[in-house]
Design brief:
- Belongs to the biotin--protein ligase family.
- InterPro entries: aa-tRNA-synth_II/BPL/LPL, Bifunct_BirA, Biotin_CoA_COase_ligase, BPL_C, BPL_LPL_catalytic, HTH_11, Transcriptional_repressor_C, WH-like_DNA-bd_sf.
- GO terms for molecular function: ATP binding; biotin--[biotin carboxyl-carrier protein] ligase activity; DNA binding.
- Its EC number is 6.3.4.15.
- It is an enzyme of class 6 (ligase).
- The protein is an alpha+beta fold.
- It has 3 domains: 54 residues, Winged helix-like DNA-binding domain superfamily/Winged helix DNA-binding domain (Arc Repressor Mutant, subunit A, Orthogonal Bundle); 200 residues, 2-Layer Sandwich (BirA Bifunctional Protein, domain 2); 48 residues, SH3 type barrels (Roll).
- The mean pLDDT is 93.
- 30% of the residues lie in helices and 27% in strands.
- It has 9 helices and 14 strands.
- Helix 4 crosses helix 8.
- It has a 7-stranded mixed sheet with strand order 3-4-5-9-8-7-6, sandwiched between helices. Strands 13-12-11-10-14 form a 5-stranded antiparallel sheet, with no helix packed on it. Strands 1-2 form a two-stranded antiparallel ribbon.
- The protein binds biotin.
- The site of biotin has 20 residues, from helix 5, strand 5, strand 8 and strand 9.
């Protein structure tokens, strides 16, 4: 089915006969595959009598060679899937198969993309970036401190470099424009965090998505914010170079060297917030983060520090 899509991706008309000949199948089999493409991948295909079939818009698919060419420094081996349950899940399976890290898993779509706190991550075909970078961490806990915040900062800088206006951060690792989420980060870890472990840095970026009724929070995309479509290969390359730079700084100098830069971009610095931890809610004012990436809140006049993957922040209405 995707071989057929690759023939159509130029956005030009192709006759049923030519497509059938290229694939070695009948015209009616071509027709059936086209119907599957529309139904399964949500693509729109024009069918015009006498001219053939045309994708409603040309498509640029992920291309490891192009990504490698555009990101010479972060030249990690790349595995690209047309469709996968979750790039993080596939990365964890690859670690089990003893695939040597670092390596990168990308997909055109995810059928079970996972977000933080058990949420699903909406992952339509060829519209966004679903990115999981696997690292082997040997330095113990210090190498993990603030790591998810560092990834958020690198994602934010990559989006700014490509010209998306107004991008900022929300603790712990959301990337927002205003109040709307444009990218999310999910770190998953296997092994012994105090000794040797593998960490999967999962990044989802809303790139060219313009419509969906599946996301249950305020969201936006690079395209919606800047009014133009983006080449995902360029974005993956830019993100790789940015991550390479920030991860090297983090490894050499620890999170404390990045703390001030992160705070500079924190959209909710000084704001009145509620910290949600399961059924519990703590109201306070954001003071910043500490040298390990934990959140500093003023609660009832006293500074308190919070960390943990299951926490999330909401703005208070009175802020
Ligand atoms: C969040 O809830 O903010 C985190 C979203 C993380 C989504 C990305 S998409 C690539 C990787 N694979 C997944 O299943 N999740 C992460």
């Amino acid at each position: 089915m995707l071989t057929l899509l690759k023939l159509l991706k130029d956005g030009r008309f192709h006759s049923g006969q030519a497509l059938g000949a290229a694939l070695g199948i009948s015209r009616s089999a071509v027709w059936k595959q086209l119907q599957h493409l529309e139904a399964e991948l949500g693509l729109s295909i024009h069918k015009v009598r006498g001219r053939g079939y045309q994708l409603a818009a040309p498509l640029t698919l992920l291309d490891p060679a192009e990504i490698g060419r555009l990101s010479p420094t972060s030249n990690w081996p790349v595995l690209v899937f047309d469709s996968i349950d979750s790039t993080n899940a596939e990365a964890l399976r690859a670690i089990e198969r003893h695939q040597a890290a670092p390596f990168l898993v990308l997909a055109e779509r995810q059928t079970a993309g996972r977000g933080r706190r058990g949420r699903k991550w909406v992952s339509p075909f060829a519209e966004n970036v679903y990115y999981s970078l696997v690292l082997r961490v040997e330095g113990g806990m210090r190498q993990l401190e603030g790591l998810s915040l560092v990834v958020g900062l690198a994602v934010m800088q990559a989006l700014r470099e490509l010209g998306v206006p107004g991008v900022g951060l929300k603790w712990p690792n959301d990337v927002l424009v205003g109040q709307k989420k444009i990218a999310g980060i999910l770190l998953e870890l296997v092994g012994d965090p105090a000794d040797v472990c593998h960490v999967v840095l999962g990044v989802g970026i809303n790139v060219n998505m313009q419509m969906t009724d599946e996301v249950d929070q305020q969201w936006t995309s690079m395209r919606l914010e800047s009014g133009k479509a983006f080449d995902r290969n360029r974005l993956v390359a830019a993100l790789g170079e940015m991550l390479h730079r920030y991860l090297a700084r983090h490894q050499a100098d620890g999170f404390s060297a990045i703390q001030a830069e992160w705070e500079q971009h924190h959209l909710w610095q000084g704001r009145a917030v509620s910290l949600i931890a399961g059924a519990n809610q703590i109201d306070g004012e954001v003071l910043g983060i500490d040298s390990q990436g934990a959140l500093r809140l003023k609660v009832g006049g006293v500074e308190k520090v919070f960390s943990g993957g299951e926490l999330s922040l909401r703005l208070r209405h009175d802020s």
